[in-house]
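Format notes (please read before filing issues)

Several people have asked whether sequences and structure tokens are stored in separate files. They are not. Every record keeps both together, in the order shown below: the sequence lines, then the token lines. Line labels are part of the format and must not be stripped during preprocessing.
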Amino acid sequence: MRTIFLLIVTILIFGKNLSLAQEKEIDRRYKGKEIEFRRFLAQNLKYPVLSQVNGSVGYSISSITITPQGEILDISIINPIDNSIDEDIKRVIKMTGNNWNVSDSLSTNQTFYIQIAYTIAMRGKVSNEINSPVKNGYNFIEPIILTAKTGDKNSLPVSNEYLRMKCDEFFKNENYEEALKCVNELIKRNPFDKKLYQLRISINKRLERKDVLKMQNFIPGVTLDELIN
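Then the structure lines:
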């Protein structure tokens, strides 16, 4: 049985010259600030063995809503990867329950968005850094990378380029069901790519289905263009 080593790489990005006025909301609401929140997640998240065996990779986005009293109101998976990964994310986020500060200045709930990249790479290879495309605001936490290491090339997931090629091939051959599978897998890996949602809408139209998610909105009322620009 092949052995897969789990490597957790955390990217802790903080500007040393941030003033108090520029402090993030997460720094005010979480005990220990964003750096401790991300460290806690990185130390407790697992890359489920079943997900590794199935080659499940992607860019998970989840949300946690906190009341002014410092209580967790809701945890949601916005860009799911697979059931095992999604449930593990919920498990760890719930564990932060006692670490949220009460806010006397707030009268409404606050939602924070958590980004976790799941990758599988060859042993000895260094994972590429992943930076959030969301620049400032919107309460997005800087991404965390979980990388499973393997010595078996056959256990590596297919590349994004291969998926795009197959999607194009299926689309041209009017095999829309298979094209849809490819584009959904690409969205798992690239949830900020607007063109993928447009392609999925086009495929579903040919299948005479409504695209329930339409263009993905992670935050109600905020478009992808607004989010990443």
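For reference, the curators noted about this record: Helices lie at 25-29, 33-44, 49-53, 83-94, 160-172, 176-189, 194-206, 224-228. Confidence is low (pLDDT under 50) at residues 1-21.
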